[in-house]
Amino acid sequence: MSGNFDRTLSREDVLRRRASLLQRLHIDGLLLVLLLMLAAGSLFILYSASGKNWDLVIKQATSFGLGLGAMLVIAQFEPRFMARWVPLGYLAVVALLVAVEVVGHTAMGATRWINIPGVIRFQPSEFMKIIMPMTIAWYLSSRSLPPSIKHTAISLSLILVPFVLILKQPDLGTSLLILASGAFVLFIGGLRWRWIIGAVTAIVPIAVAMWYFVLHNYQKQRVLTFLDPESDPLGTGWNIIQSKAAIGSGGVFGKGWLAGTQSHLDFLPESHTDFIIAVLAEEFGLVGVCLLLLVYGLLITRGLVITVQAQTLFGKLLAGALTMTFFVYVFVNIGMVSGLLPVVGVPLPFISYGGTSLVTLLSGFGVLMSIHTHRKWIAQV
Amino acid sequence: MPQPIQLKDHEKDAVLVRRRVIVGLVFVLLLIGVLVSRMYYLQVVQFEHHSTLSENNRVHVQPIPPNRGLIFDRKGRVIADNRPSFSLTVTRERAGDWKTVLDGVVEVLELSEEERGLFEKRVLQGRRPFEPVPIMYELSEEQIARIAVNQFRLPGVEVAAQLVRHYPQGPHFAHSVGYVGRINEQELKQLDPVNYSGTHHVGKTGIEKFYEDELHGQVGYEEVETNARGRVLRVLKRTDPIPGKDITLSLDLDLQEAAEAALGGRRGAIVALLPSTGEVVAMVSQPSFNPNLFVTGISFKDYGELRDSIDRPLFNRVLRGLYPPGSTIKPMMAVAGLDAGVITPSSRVFDPGFFQLPNVKHKYRNWNRNGDGWVDLDLAIARSNDTYFYDMAHKLGVDRMHEYMTRFGLGQRVSLDMHEETAGLMPSRDWKRARYRQPWYPGETVILGIGQGYMQATPLQLAQATALVATRGKWIRPHLARSVGSEAPVDHDPVPDIQLRDPRFWDYATHGMEQVLHGARGTARKVGDSAAYRIAGKSGTAQVVAIRQGEKYDSAKLAERHRDHALFVAFAPVHDPQIAVAVMVENGESGSGVAAPVAKQVMDAWLLNEGGVLKPEFAPPLTAEGKKP
Fold it and tell me: What are the boundaries of the signal sequence (chain A) (predicted)?
């Protein structure tokens, strides 16, 4: 190694380190700015959607604080360190999911919680949202890409175990998101196109056969209602009819903050949780929705840039999957509220009220930041 | 330092990932485009539509409850119908401060504080936003007028007409058809929230509960536009509800009334069924109650009276009353003994007035302490000789007895559509080990032979066991519904028929039962003498309090409520059984003296015409006319 090379490197190294305090804190400035924008917007909309309920807003702000703290802490860990502990974490969370199945706490018709009275009450499925892409990324990162049949099959079974456990709770929304988060690792890892297309085309005849030979009439009815909620205006269709009216009446510029009528008269159930986008659309119109989508778009683009710039395969796969899953959250929620997609309980990331989902999401972004800020400059040369 | 090969791999992987990321980004952008265009469609293209809906008017979805199916007796007379009734509803969202509004209602109608508490509870049971919750039923003309006059200060309060269940026959079918009542919180969790969104009542007991799904129907709905005050401006879309299915029962109002009259005000139970079809034509549990009380919510006072009455009117004696079957079980025991080969029609037992197990001192008494001398099967049934059946039970053993009696339906639910039915008890060695952690003792086998001991059966089970003798083992589950909608009820769990080694065994048992009423020494010959047709029957008594060894049963000393229950089972006419009956008269003491005449009256009502002769359709064919030997 020549002295010249040595000096150049060290100068650049020094420059980078000096360049940003954020870098030293392992924080990605752009991501942070976008997240803070969303946080501020969320509190604004929540104030309106909750009927000027300060307590709710303060609670949500506290959750944001907690989530940012979690993000900061997670960003300090090196991806290598995460990769080392992932298998154990995966087994632990699967064990917890089994525990939920056996001794879980039931609320609102679903068994999702582990409840140790007086100590803690939590949903293990929430952890799986981050552990799942990590596990598949960890597994594939030491294999050759694109994944072979054997490695694909093992990855799929790693995905399916928690998927089935969560589906049985029953929690269709979360289980599908976890399925997606695992599948995206395979996708980023270069799963062959013909297999993807093959799998998709295989689903069609299987579904048709199920429809005619397996499902009972009442089950068919349920599927139809699920696919077309408006055919059931007394059940889930009620929400969709009302949320469409709220969105539609917002027009281009909206009715103005706090001036929405549909969402304030209890017409819109769950207006501050899953259906909050309807409030935003009613009060800020198409412009507000487009701005929100722009911020989301920038977040996702940044996530994909981090994916490409990541140095380890583990980092690439994980960052890509986390980013794509994040987009699925956004798309499924907005698609559902605007009547494009069936109703599954997926909150709108960062905007919907709810502490757990915030902490999970921000932890995910903490992982992204860790991947981006722990890059080794020597290795890049 | 990494190996060169791995370095190359990394390069390849990076290219692969970058390509996939680009594909992913394209997808993301496309789908964001989809979302934007959806929003554009809703907010720009359909803006006019949605903004009219939202600004001037509100869209509501109102459920339209289906009409509950009607219930008829076998001749088409109405047992349960729906009657219009005015109720007071409150819509919480429109009432503003709804508690103040409730105060207003209480003041206007001059009601009590207790009722206000009830109203508050009912309002809180509302399930959907903007749902008018009924808080008071059966408004009088005056109450409606008072509400109308004060309407201006009672926002959200409305008088609504709705259909409410009504039982025109009053107490006659309270124990078979049951009743509907307000949906309670527990039921709310189990019912389909959508289908019941407009329904406030659900079947609580009997047929109303068992066929709830069929009777209820499918909810309809209409999307309506309302103004800010909640007045409906126009209906946007309407889907009609599908009414519930009507049910025709096999019960016969005339026979039901005749059976109740036959009990003559005594407490007891009667089941009459048609052996050839399993249709239950009369089902009496006396005393009964008025089911209409329960429909709109029974008052605490009325309910307390019914619940605490010493006569237990709410207790369904036919389906839930458990009695030791006593001697009524002897014909079935005889069939078991014949089929197992431990007795023959001509084998005899000497009765000195008691039975003793080998090497045991204890005497198992015959009811006739003097003994009946040499007894064969025919006489044993006709005289209800206990010694004969002690002996037979000892030879048969508990295992075989359990097996045969189970095939006769004891110890299990026999009905097809009676929700409240209990299984009763047919003891076995396993049962006793599990229940008492004790072995089975031979003495217990002996008393099982005369239907005493642990054995417990409902009047319905006794009627079914009797019907099985009449049909020679052909099993059809007793049922109340003849048709639901236009379909007959289907038995998804049929019981196999009883097959005997020799079908003539049925004739021996039947002949014994015939001798009970028509034989010279039959226990119920007084009843048989006045019969216009041949009856096969068997009496029994069910002990209420135990009698110690050596002690004598003395009815005079016992309190009326501690006297034995009188039982009688029968079917007729013997040559072609048309009806099987089981009668239980509480504290009636004598099966043949008290229960048998009741059974005969019920059968008379079914079989005879006004002139007191067999109806032509039940009469024996002309060639076989004349008395049987």
Answer: none
Q: Which of B428, B459, B472 is nearest to B328 (CA)?
A: B459
Q: Give, in order, the Cα–Cα distances in Å from B522 to each of A336, B224, B367, B512.
A: 80, 75, 14, 9
Interatomic CA distance for residues B153 and B399, integer angstroms: 75
Query: How are beta strands B71-72 and B247-249 bridged, if at all?
Result: parallel
How many CB pairs below 8 Å do chains A and B form together?
146
Mutating which of B13, B16, B127, B189 best tests the A interface, going by the most A Cβ atoms within 10 A?
A: B13
CA distance B54 to B48: 10
- CB A324 to CB B46 under 8 A? no
- For residue A144, which residues of chain B lie inside 8 Å, CB to CB? 9
Residue of B nearest to A239 (CA): B61
Low-confidence ranges of chain B (pLDDT < 70): 1-9, 54-59, 126-130, 226-231, 545-558, 620-629
How far is it, in rounded angstroms, from Cα B187 to Cα B185?
A: 5
Name residues whose C-beta falls within 8 Å of residue A98's C-beta, 6 or more positions apart in sequence.
Answer: A165
The more confidently predicted of residues A26 and A36 is: A36
Neighbouring-strand partners of residue B224: B60, B235
pLDDT at residue A107 in the model: 62
Per the DSSP assignment, residues forming a β-bridge with B565 are B542
* Alpha-carbon span B357 to B360, nearest angstrom: 5
Q: Are B134 and B122 in contact (CB under 8 A)?
A: yes
In 3D, which of B383, B348, B339, B343 has the Cα closest to residue B504? B339
| Closest Cβ opposite residue B194 in set A234, A250, A281 | A234
Q: In angstroms, rounded to a whole number, what is the distance separating the alpha carbons of residues B516 and A173? A: 72
Q: From the CB of residue A343, how many other CB atoms can be counted at a distance below 10 Å?
A: 22
Token pair in block for residue B104: 């207003």
Minimal CA separation from A95 to chain B, in Å: 30
Cα–Cα dist A135/B26, whole Å: 26
pLDDT at B475: 93
Mutation for testing the B interface, residue in A140, A196, A232, A238 having most B CBs under 10 Å: A238
Point out which residues pair with B225 in neighbouring strands.
Answer: B59, B234
Q: Does A338 sit within 8 Å of B42, measured CB to CB?
A: yes
Contact B21 A300 (CB under 8 A): no
Q: Active site includes B415? A: no
State the burial class of residue A129 (Cβ atoms within 10 Å of its Cβ: 0-12, 13-18, 19+): buried
* Token pair listed for A38: 């969303």
Residues A237-251 have pLDDT tens digits of 777 777 888 888 888
Say which of B12, B32, B55 has its CB closest to residue A293: B32
A241 and B16 within 8 Å at the Cβ level: the answer is no
d(CA A163, CA A171): 10
Residues of B in Cβ contact (< 8 Å) with A300: 25, 28
Write the CA distances from B226 to A165, A249, B241, integer angstroms: 45, 17, 21
Least Cα distance to B384 among B599, B537, B595 occurs for B537
CA distance linking residue A316 with residue A312, whole number of Å: 6
Residue B97: predicted pLDDT: 80
* H or E element, residue A264: none
| Residues of A with Cβ-Cβ distance to B47 under 8 angstroms | 248-249, 251-252
Worst-scoring range by mean pLDDT, A27-41, A68-82, B354-368, B526-540? Answer: B354-368
For each of the domains in chain B, give its residue range(s) and CATH number, in order of start. Answer: 61-249 (3.90.1310.10), 253-295+316-624 (3.40.710.10)
Query: Residue with structure tokens 């490197």?
Result: A9
Q: Which residue out of B85, B197, B327, B384 is catalytically annotated?
A: B327
Q: What residues contact residue B97 under an 8 Å CB cut-off, 6+ apart?
A: none
Using a CB-CB cut-off of 8 Å, the residues of chain A touching B17 are 188-190, 307-308, 313, 316-317, 320
Neighboring chain A residues of B65 at a CB cutoff of 8 Å: none
